[in-house]
Amino acid sequence: MRNLITLLLIAFFSISFIGDGNIGKIFPNVEIKTLEGEVVETSSFVDIGNPKIVSFWSTTCVPCIKELNAINSKYSEWKKETGLEVYAISTDDARFQNRVPLIVSKKKWQFPVFFDEVKKLFTELGVSTNPYTVVLDKTGKIVYEHNSYIDGEEEELIKVIRGL
Questions:
Q1: Phi, psi at residue 101, to the nearest 5°?
Q2: How far is CA 83 from CA 75, 80, 111, in A?
Q3: Domain harbouring 147, CATH code
Q4: Which end of the chain is flanked by fewer CB atoms within 10 Å, N or C?
Q5: What string of pLDDT tens digits covers the 164 residues of the chain?
């Protein structure tokens, strides 16, 4: 019993120090690449002035692909309603990058997909696992973030977007 209480206290204090991670921070400006190899600065995401979803994923991450498929299925509707833009950023290294365009084509994703092959943006955000998804307001401030994906979780994203 004493061990259980000790474990619960450790878990409680560990969770209480996690905080909100990147909430309230401005999305970092780094160079990433388009699928065609063109270098793009992430500050261009903010120039649009609409809310954004930025989702980090990899070809070997099943929850990542499920989340992006779910977002894609609602994307046209959400874009029409809110002006939303979605950006998917692959963190695949050179070994797996050739899979990215194949998946994007097969899944018929309607949003732009980029490469962060050296994980510079990923590192700037202090993230270590995929999927990692953020919502940016029209100024580029991170107003929502989550790791992992559970079916239906995309509905939380649109609630946040509508609240902006």
A1: -60, -30
A2: 10, 6, 13
A3: 3.40.30.10
A4: N
A5: 555 444 444 444 333 334 458 999 999 999 999 999 999 999 988 877 789 999 999 999 999 999 999 999 999 999 999 999 999 999 999 899 999 999 999 999 999 999 998 999 999 999 989 999 999 999 999 999 999 999 999 999 999 999 98
